[in-house]
Structure formats: structure tokens, C-alpha cells
Amino acid sequence: MRRFVLKRLGLALITLFLVSVILFAIAQVMPGDVGRAILGPYASERQVEALDHNLGVDRPLLVRYWNWAGGFVSGRWGKSYLMDEPVLPLVTRRLLNSLILGGFALALIAPFSIAIGVLAALKEGGWFDRSTAVVGLSLIALPEFASGIAVLVIFAVVLGWLPVSSHVPGADPIDWFRQLLLPSIPLMFVLFGYISRMARAGTVEALHAHYTRTAILKGLPRRVVIWSHVLRNSLLPTITVIGVQTGYLVGGLVVTETIFSYPGIGKLVFDSAIGHDLPVLQSAVLLIAILYMLLMLISDIVYTLLNPRIRLSA
Amino acid sequence: MGSPEVAAAGNGTPDEGFGAVRGARSWLGRQSMALLRSRTFLIGAAIVAFWVVDAVFWRAIVPQDPQALNPTATLAPPSAAHWFGTDDLGRDVFSRTLAGAASVLTVAPAATALGLIGGIVVGLVGGYYRGLVDDILMRVVDALLAFPLIVIAVLVLAVLGPSVVNVILVIGFVFTPIVARTVRSAVLAEREREYVAAARLLGSSSVAIMAAEILPNITAPLAVEATIRFGYAVFTSATLAFLSLGVQQPSPDWGLSISLGRANLETAPWISLFPAAALATLIIGINLAADGLHQVLQE
User: How many contacts (CB atoms, under 8 Å) link A and B?
Assistant: First the structure.
């Protein structure tokens, strides 16, 4: 078990290194001649060279990567062009806001989706199964910006029940729902589709397994068969899917936070992309990638811990 | 490339590699018949076909010029003259919705093709050679997968500047590792089969074995993956257009129209609502086709 965790950690570190190289290539190398881009087409070659030298972009790529990565590790993330404040506290504050929104959506929709998926599987092929499949498929197909605009028009503009733009909620639980419900609906739509589908597929597989037939044939009550034989096996893959989906969730946050002007990391990514605020943009993207890898790692380890077949064989 | 056939004919007895290649046609015929019996696939394919025909021939279909301004009829609600109403410049929303299919159905297929080509090459090489090449490729794939699709697309478009070509490039680039994973796992199963060993013994080069032996035999998972990717490409390109990082004005593109319609949501929601409905039907159609394809090919 410890060997497994160490191996996964080692792989995650290698991946993290490659992630930083890819990000360095996109954010630092791809823009091309930095000095020329800043000074414009009329500056002389000498001026461009001087600026390149001052910025350090005329040095070899390896040296530039080393300085760039070193800056990240030691917390020197630079200063935002747009907001005139250090990047590190800005990005972490926004990330926290997004975790609140994403966590709210996930906490509301995950148990519900699993329950629906399991119920659909227990009546495989029935009307409930077929109608939830159609609903799930349609909700996955609806891009967040389309569903976001629809709920915005209905609940904020026409009915006026909820605010058009959301901010970070206070301590009051009613305020949580007021601020977070609308921006999390587009996320919940897509999450519901994925999670319920996965829960259904896992449950169907477990229902058809030999051990389930054995349990039924030896006369165990249906409730016992389902709770301790079927669900214990079927919900494991669903846990991994929830882990994978958190990565998607961040992409959805870019859209939903922009629509509802919620001050999370998704809106920060969008604003800094539009405003060419590269220091903020690259730090935010790196932080998102690291967080995603951590979640994958955790869901992998949790899956292993919960699965006795892997736990005991390792 | 043709070495297995020649060798098999020389032996007088068709070996397994030859049989697999010759059997491909009847396999394709059987699968096509099964697809035509799948209701899910047919409904999905019909919806997609409708939008594809519309995207190609919209100039002949639209009742009005989608760019024609009409200052006397701005923000008009749906009526007999304007089925879907008009936008803030008096342009006919029905015509713009029909014309808007063209941009998304140019970007999405191009991006999907790019991702498929890249993914097939990487997946074939990794899965066939295994070992160090595979290890390195898969680590890079893992690293690329750590970036959410929209986030890396936004980053690249911010650096390169928003344009249709850049949207195609970035979606294709992001799809490459995802397709590579699917191809690789299919190749891992196929490379142990007898026909691959036979082709190797007959002296086929590695490239020939990958392209002429293994690739035709992983068509089924590849077709499913391609359809799913196509759905995501539509989804992503529309989202990028919505975020004003893709197609620019005055294109009648759906994502862009939905975004511009936000300014008048309270008084004229039809400007955003109809393109949104059109986009949703296209993606649902693609997903239905993918589901049908998956069910048929799995059997």
C-alpha cells in the first residue's frame, strides 16, 4: 500500500514537471520576441536588444526556465498588470472563492445524481431508466453558457428571485443559496449527466455479476443484496469519475463565473486573458493544473483504499 | 505495404493477416446494417445531417440577408415577418440562426480531424513500441490532461490572439492526448494478436504493420472516439466564441450571437435563446449518434 502511494506520488511529480514545461512553452516561449512586442515595430534593433537583455529573455531557454520555475517555487509570482497587486494573494483568494462555488455545486448534485443513477439501474430498461438517460444526455449537451443564460433570464430577470450577479456568500446559510444557486446550476446540469450515468453503469454491471446471482440464490433479502453486494462494488468507479469531473468543473467555472460575475479563479482566467495579464494568467493556470493533479491523486488513493481487491493484493 | 498479400498468395494458403484484411469489407457491411437499425443513431445522424446541409446551403435557404440592418425594426419580437424576431440592429434572427451553423461546423470538424491525426500517430507509436517511448509519451499525455480544456484554450488564445485558425489549432492540440489514450489502449490489445505476429514474421516494417494491419482493426473504438470528440469540439468552439476568443463579429456564429444578445436579455431574450436552442440540438444530435455507434460497435 505504501509502495503504491509512493509510486503514484513519484509519477505525479514527473507530471508536474512536464506541466510546468508545457506552461513555460506556451506563456514564455510562444509569444516570440518579447522586446519587439512591447516596443512596437518602430523601435530600433538596439533598443529591442537592450530591453530583451533587461527582461532576461535573451538568455538560453534552460536558464530562463530555471529562473521562471524557481520564481514559482519560492512564491515570487510577480505583480498583476491590470489590478496592480501581487499575483500570489490575488490568485489564491480567487481560487478559494471558486472552491466554495464548485464545492457547493458538487455537494448538492453528487448524492442526488448517484441516487438517480442507482434507481435507474435497478429498473434497467424501464421508463424511469430511459427518461433519466434522455434528460442526462440533454443536460450534458447543453453548454454552460446556454443553460447559464437561460436560468439567468428566468430566475434573475423575469422572476427576480435571485441576484443577476453573485458575490462570495457570508455566514448566513440562506445567503449561500441566494449567491451560489444560480451560478452553480450550469455546473450541476453537466455533473448530473456524468455522475448519474456512471453510477447507473456501475450498478448495472454489479447487478449482472456472478456474486450478485449467488447472493440472490442463497436467499438473501433483496435489500441486503443491493446494499452490501451491489452498491459496494458499483459506487467505486463513480468516486473516480467525481475526481475526474472536478477538472471539467474548473473549465465550467470560467464560463459560469463570467456570466454571473462571480469573483472566482475562472473569471480571473478570463479577465486576465482578455486583458493580456500574463503574470496572473500563467499562475492561475498552473495552480489549476496542480489542484487537478492533486484531486486525481487523492481519488486514485481513495479508490484503492476502498477497494479491498487492490488494497489486500498490494 | 502489400507484402502480406503477396506472401500469402505465394504460399497458396491465406494466413490470418490476409484474412483479417479481406474480412474488413463484410465487417463494415454488417456494422452499417446494424447502424441503420439503431433508432438512437438514426435520430442523431438525421439531426446532424440537417445542420450540415444547412451549413453548406444556408445562402439558398435564408429568407433574408443575415447581415442586413433594419433600423426601423430593432428588437422586434417573433412575428410572421421575423419568425425568431430581430436583434438590436434589426437583423433577422431566424436567418442568422440558419447561417450561424456554418462557422461552428467548419471549426469543429477541422479541429476534430487534427486531434484524430495527432492522437492516432502518438497512440500507435506508444502502444506499438511500448517501453521507454511509450512511457515518455504517456507522461506528456498525462501532463496535457492536467489542464482543463477551456482553461488551456483560453491561455493559448490569449497568447496567440483570437482567430478561427488558432481555435482549430488549440482544440486539435488539446484533443491529441485524449485520442492518443484511446488509440493506445486499443493498440495494446491488438498488438498481441496473431495477425500482427504474422505480418512481423513476413518482414513488414513497423510503420506498415501500424498503418496497414493494426489501424484498420481499431476502426470501431476510433469511430466512437471521433464522434464523441466532434461533440466536444462543437461545445468548445461555441464556448470560445461566446468568450469572444474565437469567431469575431459580424459573423452570425451561435456562440457569438448568444454572447452579444446578453445586452438585451431583459427586453429581447429571443436573440440569445434561438441560437442557444440550435446549438443544443446539434450537440444532442452528435451525442445520440455517438451513443448509437457505441452500442452497435460494442456488440
Answer: 137
